[in-house]
Amino acid sequence: MPAHRMSMRKLKEVLRLKWVCGLSHRQISRATGISVGAVSAYAARASAANLDWASVEPLADDELEAKLRLPADQNTQARRVELDYAFVHRELRRANVTLQLLWEEYVEAHLGERTYRYTQFCQRYRDWAQTLKRSMRQQHRAGEKLFADFAGHTMPILDGRGGVAFRAHVFVGVLGASNYTYACATHSEGTHDWIGGLIGAMEFYGGAPSLLVPDNPRALIARPDRYEPGLGRTAQEFVNHYATAMLPARPRKPRDKAKAEVAVQVVQRWVLARLRNHRFFSLAELNRAIAGLIADINQRPFKKLQGNRREWFERLDQPALRPLPAQRYEIATFVRCVVNIDYHVEVDHHYYSAPHSLVRQPVYARLTRFGVEILHGGKRVAAHARSHLRNKHTTLPEHMPVAHRAHLEWTPGRLLNWGASVGPGAEAIVRHLLTNRPHPEMGYRACLGLLALARKYGRERLEAACQRALVVGSPTRRSVLSILKSGLDRQASPPIELTEWQSPEHENVRGPDYYH
Question: In what residue span(s) does the HTH IS408-type domain sit (predicted)?
């Protein structure tokens, strides 16, 4: 079955991990779930196009695709004969059997068929062998990995009456090379708590590692697959901001993050156990107590090694960490929307405008604490201040069609001035239309209809028709239109004295004073 074509967002992530994070093709493959061969092919294509990260980052999806000139379907080649992995694995245990020999036998056994080349043969076998259940001691390089997880135990936060307001969760982070440990309390284990804990850890360390190794939480991982996990949009934007990468541990594989498991155990025994008899009334109070005990843990001497976590951090991890960006990451969430026919998108029961050319097209709304951005094709097309007013609209004039924008510019005062420029009869009818409706805006359309009659019949005929409509006691647009169509405005009539039209006294007529 042919594989799905890679999205431009994932391709851009591959290039970012290579050029910005400096990861090897194998590390990029594990972080993105793309084969090493595909990573190498895309990197070579980008290099041939003389691209770098500074030129790729601002590109929209279609612009990047055009520069790389990707074919419409990259999976047209016929399938190759698959390996018998178990047979290869078993034969390698025999004396003097090598992968080179097994590859030659594989090719000879399938003459005339498409087979893998030697490098592909070896790579596919090694990828398969890594899935076998076994344990090995991991070698951690300085500044490479930050392991993170939440402790299994929680801490009660009391309310003013002595009851439990909520139970705080404890985030734990640890650097691989030095075991330098960080911990903080959070409200829950949601997206904001995970990313807030990782930000706090990196600020505590004063730098960012090459890889973040969390568990496989739904809060960060949109597709928690064992082989090809996919980050959520918020987590992806977070790692982009800190020029790092995220390689989540496999589900139900604690050995992938053994450092975090040990650090959690240390925090539970040397921090949470010590605080078991303390009473905390706020999260900030608990975090101050945790910070003091974490400092003590990092100063404790190792039992079998010289020095302590703090000394090892200063000697190993600290010089190798990447510098933090000047601005702290503002946690954002993404909501997929469709631009409605009124060129607005609904976000949290509020309506924000988008360019009218995007009507009925899918977009993403990026939500922060104070702002809302509308994204289309990898580019920001609108930005608004966030509003929490339900069922209200935030509209920018430049997003409106020209006709709608012109309609918006008509106000009651402008309509009255236009009526006065036509004549006293037209002014009287405009005033009546604006003041004898439940809301002035309900008379806008009728007034604009009079404006259209002036363009069709001329101002003189319109004024004459308005005067006749006032005389017969029917100051409406429909009456004026009927008079113009029948030509009654051209018939001679005795001169009349125009006065402001007054509605008859009746209990069902509210009048303008009703709305003061």
Answer: 11-92
Concatenated DSSP letters of 276-289: TT---SSHHHHHHH
Q: Between vectors from CA 423 to CA 418 and to CA 425, what angle results, nearest 5°? A: 105
What confidence tens digit (pLDDT) does each residue in 6-52 have?
Answer: 677 888 888 888 888 888 888 888 888 888 888 888 888 888 888 88
More confident of the two residues 69 and 362: 362
Evaluate whether 345 touches 338 at the Cβ level (below 8 Å).
Answer: yes
The partner residues of 168 in beta bridges, in order of sequence, read 155
Residue pLDDT, tens place only, 222-276: 776 666 677 888 888 888 899 898 888 776 666 667 888 888 999 998 899 889 8
pTM of the model: 0.54
487-501 CB burial, b ≥16 within 10 A, e <16: eebeeeeeeeeeeee
With the C-alpha atoms ordered 151, 139, 30, 204, is the resulting torsion angle positive or negative?
A: positive
* CA atoms of 22 and 233, how far apart (whole Å): 22
DSSP state of 300: S
Determine contact, residues 83/113, Cβ cutoff 8 Å. no
State the Cα–Cα distance between residues 163 and 486, nearest whole angstrom: 82
For the record, the structure tokens of 44 come out as 């070579």
**Positive or negative CA dihedral for 420, 421, 422, 424?**
positive
pLDDT digits (tens, 9 = 90+) for 359-370: 889 999 988 888
Do strands 211-213 and 145-150 pair parallel, antiparallel, or not at all (unpaired)? parallel
